[in-house]
Amino acid sequence: MSKKHVAVIMGGYSSEYDISLQSGEVVCESLDPESYVVYPIHIFEKGWNYVHPDGTKHPVDKGTFSFSDGSKTIRPDVVFNTVHGTPGEDGYLAAYFELLGIPQTSTGFYQAALSFNKRDCLTVLKGFGIQCADSFYHTKGMEINTAEIITKVGLPCFVKPNRAGSSFGVSRVTEEEQLIPAIEEAYKEDFEIIIESELAGTEVSVGAYRNKGTIEVLSPTEIVSENEFFDYEAKYLGKSEEITPARISKEETVAVQKETQRIYELLNMHGVTRTDFIIQNGIPYFIEINTTPGLSKESIIPKQAREAGMTLGAFFGILIEERLQL
């Protein structure tokens, strides 16, 4: 059987580009060289390039997504998407590859766009009875009425960019005078923001993916942050303890895994996702779903895959084969 040519795309146009590069490097290192020929592709606003093992860069033809490997032109059989933020997690690249007819490992463009927009995703899921925190939405330029916001969501609350990841621009607010600076910080990442009531409980994150058409749900990971919440430092700089499987009851484990599968089905997801919850009084409250979750060595999904008895190479291979079979 001939080896499949896999382009691993990484980088992106957002604050998350460095995390994406780490994820992409882990995928490149882990994929089975007996089954796949791997091409790391750096996607930046200044240009898209295949980075050859010798360090040379070869530009990608965006019209065909083809590139030179130094001796011949390559058009990959499949793309492994590790671009966090825009344009990899918000649907732009998914739509691009669909138009080109090249399968890619993340979900479809509509599902990616919907889930990347926290406000719209929450609105859809609330309509199906998914439990969520109380929230308030705001767009840059609108008048800010702090009293109205606090009446709706209470204190403490979280101020978040509506479309950003890795906790960039997120603040925890405990007093009314902190609200305006937190809103200004969130607007550095997006012109839309979401302000949510704080939930008291255990934070968990749950991976899910398709394997031969069947939705598989991984063991929940418990998040214990040294900081006020699971921010950038906690996620990527070792300022948290991530415990897999989570130290929750069997009933809570079953409940959060069922809710993860239900959300995956409701949104018609493909590829690997990571869904975040706060379990409050035994009930999982949905926070957000990530359609290109971190795959760096510090990330949650690789830990859950290993907990399930899979090597990263085997797990990433499942994601590739699932897309090739569609």
Overall 3D form: globular
Q: Considering DSSP H and I runs of 4 or more, what fraction of the residues is helical?
A: 25-40%
CATH topology of the largest domain: D-amino Acid Aminotransferase, Chain A, domain 1
* CATH architecture tag of the largest domain: 2-Layer Sandwich
What is the CATH superfamily label of the largest domain? Answer: ATP-grasp fold, B domain
Number of domains: 3
| Global structural class | alpha+beta
| Rg from Cα | 20 Å
Helix and strand string, N-terminal first? EHEEEEEEHHHEHEEHEEEEHEHEEHH
From the N-terminal CA to the C-terminal CA, the straight-line distance is: 19 Å
Taking the sheet with the most strands, its summary is: 6 strands, antiparallel
Low-confidence parts: 230-236
Quaternary structure = single chain
Number of helices: 10
Q: Please tally the β strands and state the result.
A: 17
Classified by CATH, the class of the largest domain is Alpha Beta
**% residues in beta strands:** 25-35%
Mean pLDDT: 93
Give the key terms.
326 residues; Rossmann fold; D-amino Acid Aminotransferase, Chain A, domain 1; 3 domains; five-stranded mixed beta sheet; 17 strands
Could you please describe the fold and organization of this structure?
With 326 residues, this protein is an alpha+beta fold. The protein folds into 3 domains: 103 residues, Rossmann fold (3-Layer(aba) Sandwich), CATH 3.40.50.20; 141 residues, D-amino Acid Aminotransferase, Chain A, domain 1 (2-Layer Sandwich); 63 residues, ATP-grasp fold, A domain (Dna Ligase, domain 1), CATH 3.30.1490. 31% of the residues lie in helices and 28% in strands. It has 10 helices and 17 strands. The strands form 4 sheets. Strands 12, 13, 14, 15, 16 and 17 form a 6-stranded antiparallel sheet that branches. Helix 2 runs antiparallel to helix 3. The longest helix has 17 residues. About 2% of the residues have low confidence.
